């Protein structure tokens, strides 16, 4: 088996075929729906905590 050439791709060097710079790491962050779901979950948890701190309790049926 032939030895592979050394890895010459670095963040700053252009791609040998196209001259374009190569990107390292993920192309993008989390999908938009994941971010929206996370924001909604955080808001609901904050509302729950604020409700309890304000004396709202669990909203049970007992007097």
General description of the model:
The chain is mainly α and 63 residues long. Helices cover 35% and strands 0% of the residues. It contains 1 helix and no strands. The protein has one helix spanning 32-53. The longest helix is centred in the C-terminal third of the chain and has 22 residues, at 32-53. The termini are far apart.
Percent in helix: 25-40%
Give the N-to-C terminal Cα separation: 80 Å
Number of strands: 0
Overall geometry: rod-shaped
Radius of gyration: 26 Å
Structural class: mainly alpha
Tell me the number of helical segments per DSSP (H or I, 4 or more residues long).
1
Query: How do the helices and strands follow one another from N- to C-terminus?
Result: H
| Beta-strand content | under 5%
Please state the average pLDDT score. Answer: 76
Query: How would a textbook summarize the main sheet?
Result: none
């Amino acid at each position: 088996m032939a030895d592979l050439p050394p890895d010459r791709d670095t963040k700053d060097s252009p791609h040998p075929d196209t001259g374009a710079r190569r990107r390292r790491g993920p192309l993008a962050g989390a999908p938009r729906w994941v971010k929206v779901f996370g924001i909604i979950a955080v808001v609901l948890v904050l509302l729950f905590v604020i409700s309890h701190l304000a004396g709202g309790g669990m909203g049970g049926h007992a007097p």
